[in-house]
Specification:
Number of strands: 5
Shape: globular
Number of domains: 1
Distance between the termini: 30 Å
Pfam family, one: PHA_gran_rgn
CATH topology: TATA-Binding Protein
Order of helices and strands: EHEEEEHH
CATH architecture: 2-Layer Sandwich
Number of helices: 3
Structural class: alpha+beta
Organism: Stenotrophomonas mori
Largest sheet: 5 strands, antiparallel
Radius of gyration: 12 Å
Protein name: Polyhydroxyalkanoic acid system family protein
Strand content: 35-45%
CATH superfamily: Alpha-D-phosphohexomutase, C-terminal domain
InterPro entries: PHA_gran_rgn
Amino acid sequence: MSSIDIHHAHALPEARARAAIADVALKLQERFDVSTRWQDGTLHFTRTGVTGAIELLPGAVRVTAELGFLLSAMKGMVESEIQRVLAEKLG
């Protein structure tokens, strides 16, 4: 298993940051068939080979994920895509 832990600072109000993360969740569901659920300020996502969360913090977002064996080989690409989407959605 391989772990991802990314912090991304932003200057959005909490409601706009939450809406941006909700948009990311929809894209994850459509593109990768993940299941998502909100618990307090954290969006949890899962599917075969990956389990993770996107946590809304004051002025930042933290993305954590555990990649299964097959996705571990693509860890760098997965991290780059997460960072790209966070920059696009949160600035």
